[in-house]
Amino acid sequence: xxxxxxxxxxxxxxxxxxxxxxxxxxxxxxxxxxxxxxxxxxxxxxxxxxxxxxxxxxxxxxxxxxxxxxxxxxxxxxxxxxxxxxxxxxxxxxxxxxxxxxxxxxxxxxxxxxxxxxxxxxxxxxxxxxxxxxxxxxxxxxxxxxxxxxxxxxxxxxxxxxxxxxxxxxxxxxxxxxxxxxxxxxxxxxxxxxxxxxxxxxxxxxxxxxxxxxxxxxxxxxxxxxxxxxxxxxxxxxxxxxxxxxxxxxxxxxxxxxxxxxxxxxx
Length: 267
Known about the structure:
Strand order of the largest sheet: 6-7-8-3-9-10
Structural class: alpha/beta
Largest sheet: 6 strands, mixed
Number of helices: 10
Number of strands: 10
């Protein structure tokens, strides 16, 4: 295999006396869709927070293309090519859908502040390119018809897609998706699965995704890691994960036919 795009090495996080993550390791290869699953409280979002710079780890390291990036701030990681969506949406509700994307696209300035004040030809050309990129993303995410609407007025599924579009506007190499199917109906989940696969191809993305809807990840992911009480208990292809006894026990419990809060079994 090539050098991993992202590597997590023995990553741990304590909150007081609570060990939320205990020496978790895995790697995401270029172009791979990698899933993280586990029961509620397994440490999935904590792990995302460590990777994306929201929370510093207690121990361990995060590497990007082989270089340590542990402890860097979210905006620094975004410049490297790492973008993230959140389980709790973080849109600018008062701005239009289009303006939400234009704000994200300002991370790639194509002209100076002075050029903007003077309205130079180069600045005007850069602004047209930025607008063209925003409209292209709106078309890809099927949001173009809603471009002028305030983001806060959109339906939940449309708001989810807008947050994905905004993350894509920063031109990531790795897209972290935190429960993108939460609150979606079955048809919307199917559409989301297809969309993520298409975005990977179109934007040459790697994807790291947390999701409670296990059947979606089984269809979508190349490989998965399973967390339980902050420990990685399994790593492999969807078929290997589906048959792993530790995964079955974590989700179903020994001798039990009920789930443990995930709402879905690995099968």
